[in-house]
């Protein structure tokens, strides 16, 4: 396994590899968990070369967000990648990726004014900008993203389509703990009481799915039920509970077609997100 920190070296190696190999790419900000490992394993199944980027991207953090405190453990990440058979880790510094103030940034026009994008202006512009750079540097045939951050999947789908990247986006289902909590690097910031409460987020989503399967189509009723369940069973503060079409993330009048039910809950030191995507007749 190679660890590359230099853009020029990364480009030269990819140019050589692309002649005879397919490349699967897993973009991450490190502190790898089981969710990332599933992406890596899926990438290795169908690609000749698997590349994992580990880069905490400052462009996607707001002024009051947790860039400095975002969990990092590069040595452990390297060990995990080696065990999983990753071929290359791309681990550039911030200075390497952004040596000068950017004269060009990617501006995301749609799918960002709801869910996390509503309270994090500029976040997805930062995501789209760094991925545009990484796509050009790594030239992947396929990119693997987890559905835990379904809005990111929707935005990246639009990025790839609109800018004509010759890349196939492979969304991978959310990986969960045994009690249903979506695996996340931020889970380590939950205190013991919050960790016991956090699975109620997913349970509320499952209860909503049951209601839909039983015939409920009223969005307001479903949102109210979800909020009541989370409020009663956790100490977290609800950021949002919303239902939209997916992947367009457009407002809908009733539950029909392919939809997403998405939740964000703020605990003391961790903001957790989760969702389910359903096809409803």
UniProtKB/TrEMBL annotation:
Gene Ontology MF term list: ATP binding; pantoate-beta-alanine ligase activity
Binding residues for ATP: 29-36, 146-149, 175, 183-186
EC id: 6.3.2.1
Chain positions recorded as beta-alanine binding sites: 60
Active site as annotated: 36 (proton donor)
Reactions that this protein is recorded to catalyse: (R)-pantoate + beta-alanine + ATP = (R)-pantothenate + AMP + diphosphate + H(+)
Signal peptide (UniProt feature, chain positions): none
Biological processes annotated in GO: pantothenate biosynthetic process
UniProt xrefs under InterPro entries: Cyt_trans-like, Pantoate_ligase, Pantoate_ligase_C, Rossmann-like_a/b/a_fold
Keyword ATP-binding: yes
Compartment(s): Cytoplasm
Pathway assigned in UniProt: Cofactor biosynthesis; (R)-pantothenate biosynthesis; (R)-pantothenate from (R)-pantoate and beta-alanine: step 1/1
Major subcellular site: cytoplasm
An annotated GO cellular component: cytosol
Keywords: ATP-binding, Cytoplasm, Ligase, Nucleotide-binding, Pantothenate biosynthesis
Binding site for (R)-pantoate: 60, 152
Record note on quaternary structure: Homodimer.
More info: The reaction proceeds by a bi uni uni bi ping pong mechanism.
Family: Belongs to the pantothenate synthetase family.
HAMAP family linked to this entry: PanC
Function: Catalyzes the condensation of pantoate with beta-alanine in an ATP-dependent reaction via a pantoyl-adenylate intermediate.
Protein name as it appears in the record: Pantothenate synthetase
Organism: Robertmurraya siralis
Lineage per the UniProt record: Bacteria, Bacillati, Bacillota, Bacilli, Bacillales
